[in-house]
Amino acid sequence: MADETTPASGPAANGPQLSLQKIYIKDASFEAPGAPHIFQEQGQPQIQLNLSQQVGALAENVYEVVLTVTVTCKLAEKTAYLAEVQQAGVFGLQGFDNPNRDAVLATYCPNVLFPYVRQAVSDLIQNGGFPPFLIQPINFEALYAEQMRRRADGQQPNA
């Protein structure tokens, strides 16, 4: 029983290991270029959401993952607001082969960061005087699978 409570002992210690070292906002911005007049505008808002991520190596087996979310809201062709947050995390990965390491960095790590970036974007928008905006869940596994499929298709010769 004592062996189960000692994380550094036993065969599991030799397998792949993932550690979350830090979560932080790397950058955040909010603009409401038409304020205060935009608050008088009527109409259905048009929301555009852009999502991207970057992975950078900080040291051996240590990576920074940055999830960037940009939300642009337009009312009657005028920009009501633009909110952008770069949510970052530092992750330690040991014992992974390259394909599995890349998959973890592209799927698991953004899933960890997503609730933080969703809250930060929502807070920026609401603090800017606009109704709260909740980003719907994102399937990072499906996005990664699609990226891998496109990469595989791009490597095949044209027929």
Overview of the molecule:
The protein has 159 residues and is α+β, with helices and mostly antiparallel strands. It has a single domain, classed as SecB-like (Bacterial Protein-export protein SecB), CATH 3.10.420. It has helices at 98-127, 140-155, and strands at 17-31, 46-59, 62-75, 78-94. The protein has a four-stranded antiparallel sheet. Strand 3 and strand 4 (78-94) form a beta hairpin. Helix 1 crosses helix 2 (140-155). 15% of the residues are buried. Residues 2-11 have low confidence and may be disordered.
Write out the CATH superfamily name.
SecB-like
CATH class: Alpha Beta
- Which blocks of ≥5 consecutive residues have pLDDT under 50? 2-11
Strand order of the largest sheet: 1-4-3-2
Distance between the termini: 60 Å
Oligomer: single chain
Shape: elongated
Strand content: 35-45%
Q: Estimate the mean pLDDT confidence.
A: 90
What percent of the residues sit in helical stretches (DSSP H or I)? 25-40%
**Main β-sheet description:** 4 strands, antiparallel
How many beta-strand elements? 4
Element-by-element helix/strand order: EEEEHH
Number of structural units classed as domains:
1
Structural class: alpha+beta
CATH architecture: Roll
Task: Tally the helices.
Answer: 2
Could you tell me the radius of gyration in angstroms? 20 Å
